[in-house]
Amino acid sequence: MNILILGSGGREHTFAYKISQSKRCDNLFVAPGNAGTEPIATNIAIQPTDFEAVKKCVLENNIEMIVVGPEDPLVQGIANYFAETPELKNVMLIGPSKRGALLEGSKQRAKEFMMQHNIPTAAYESFTAESLEAGKIFLEKLNPPYVLKADGLAAGKGVLILNDLNEAKQELENMLAHSKFGEASSKVVIEEFLDGIELSVFVLTDGKNYKILPTAKDYKRIGEGDTGLNTGGMGAISPVPFADEALMKKIEDRIVKPTVNGLAEEKIDYKGFVFIGLIKVNNEPYVIEYNVRMGDPETEVVLPRIKTDLVDLFEATFKQTLNNITIEIDERAATTVMLVSGGYPEDYEKGKEISGLENVEGSIIFHAGTKSENGKILTNGGRVLAVTSMDTDFKKALKKSYQNIEKLSFDRMQYRNDIGFDL
Ligand code: AMP
Ligand code: GLY
Q1: What's the distance, CA 415 to chain centroid?
Q2: Which alpha helices (DSSP H) does 6-142 contain, by range?
Q3: Rounded to an integer, what distance in angstroms lies between the CA atom of residue 405 and that of residue 414?
Q4: Minimum-distance ligand to the CA of 158?
Q5: Which helix (H) or strand (E) holds 260?
Q6: Of 59, 205, 260, 344, which residue has the fewest beta carbons closer than 10 angstroms?
Q7: Does domain 335-405 fall into CATH 3.90.600.10?
Q8: Residue 307 phi, psi (nearest 5)
C-alpha cells in the first residue's frame, strides 16, 4: 500500500526508516520530510496542518495509510477531518480524534481526566486571569519548588519550576495577565512538585485494546548534568533500566489500563499513540503529562527495538484488532544522542554544511532539522541529527554513538556527552 507520514523531524525519519523496510509498503511519502527521508521516500512540500493540501496529496497518490507525527494536526482535528470526509474515511489514519488529542492540548483537561479515572498524578488547581489573586494565595499554601503549567500547547516551553514564592507569583501573573505564552497561558495549572526520576511509557491503542511499547528516558536539558534550558530532547535511552517488572505492573494496572478504559468510557475515538510521561517517587509511578503522539527523540530508540512490522501494527490499530497481534521487541538496548546547532534552544543559525555522514559505521543517523541542497546536506533546525546505536547494554550502545559522532561535524555543532549519566 501507499503510506504517508506527516512531519519533518527525527521521529518522522525513524517512522520512514521502519516503514520503508516493510514488505507491505509500496510507495512511501513524507510531508514535508527532511534530507534523511529523501532517499527512502518521496518528500512532499506541504504542512501537516494544511488539511486541504493533505487531502489532495492522499487522493492524488492513492494513500491508504497515514501516520501523524506531531501533535498540532491532531489537536486541530485531522482525525475528525478524515473521518468526516467521505473520500478519506477509509484511509487508515494513525492518531487520535480532536477530543482525544486534548489530553495533550490542555493540561487542565489531562488533569481532570486523571482525577476522573483515578490515575495517580500530582495534586493541582487551575486558574485564569479572573482568579489570579486566588492563584497567588494557592501558591502560598504550597511548599517550593512551585510548578506552573500553561494549559495549552507551548512548544514544550510552557512549564516553569520555580524555587522562590515571589518569583512564582510574578510568573503566574506574567502567564495569566500578560500572555507570557500567548493564548496557551490564558489558563494555568499549578501543581504539587514531585521529586523523583522520570521515565516515559509508550502505548499504542485502538481505543479498545492496547500494546505497551518499549520504555524510554529522554534528556531534556541542554547542559550536561541536566542543567540549563529545556530543549525538545538531547538524547534518549531504551529500555529504562529501573523500569523493572514490578514497576511496569504498577504502571500498567494503575495508569495504562485506566487510561485506555477511560477513553473508551468517555467514547473518545482514539487510534494512536499515548506517550505517558511518568515520575517514580518512592517506587510509585505518577503521571506528569500525556502526549498524544510519539516522543522525539524517544522514537529514535523505541522504534528500532520493535521487530513487528509497523504496517501490520498500524492496520490492526485502525481496524481495532490489536488484540490479535503479538508485539516482538529486540532485547538489545538502544541509545540516541542529538547533535544540535550552536545556540539552541535559543537563537541559532541554519544552513551549515554537515560533513562525515558517509563515514558512520554501526549507528543509524536519523535526520531531524536537515535539508539537501545541490548535493550537500545542510542544517535546517535546532536539533539536527540523532545518532542511534544498539548493543547488549546502553553503555556499549552509547559508546558506538559517541565514536560515530567524532566523524561528524558542522559549524557550532553541540551535543551532550553524558546521556545516561543518572542511570
Ligand atoms: P511537562 O511539559 O508537563 O512534561 O513538564 C516538563 C517537565 O517539567 C517534566 O518533564 C518534568 O521534568 C517537570 N515537571 C512537570 N511537572 C512536574 C511536577 N509536578 N513535579 C516535578 N517536576 C515536574
Ligand atoms: N522528547 C519529549 C517530547 O517529544 O515531547
Answers
A1: 19
A2: 10-20, 51-60, 72-75, 78-84, 98-105, 107-116, 132-141
A3: 10
A4: 1
A5: helix 257-265
A6: 59
A7: yes
A8: -90, -25
Fold of 124-191: Dna Ligase; domain 1 (3.30.1490)
pLDDT band at residue 177 using 50, 70 and 90 as cut-offs: confident
Q: CA-CA distance, 46 to 6, in Å (whole number)?
A: 9
Q: Is the CB of 120 under 6 A from ligand 1?
A: no
Q: What are the structural domain ranges in the chain?
A: 2-97, 124-191, 197-324, 335-405
User: Would the CATH topology of 2-97 be identical to that of 335-405?
Assistant: no
Q: Which fold has domain 197-324?
A: D-amino Acid Aminotransferase; Chain A, domain 1 (3.30.470)
What is the fold, at CATH topology level, of the domain defined by 2-97?
Answer: Rossmann fold (3.40.50)
User: Which residue minimizes the CA distance to atom 2 of ligand 2?
Assistant: 295
pLDDT digits (tens, 9 = 90+) for 245-287: 999 999 999 999 999 999 999 999 999 999 999 999 999 999 9
Probe target for ligand 1 pocket from 157, 279, 287, with the most ligand atoms within 8 Å of CB: 279
Whole-structure pTM value = 0.95
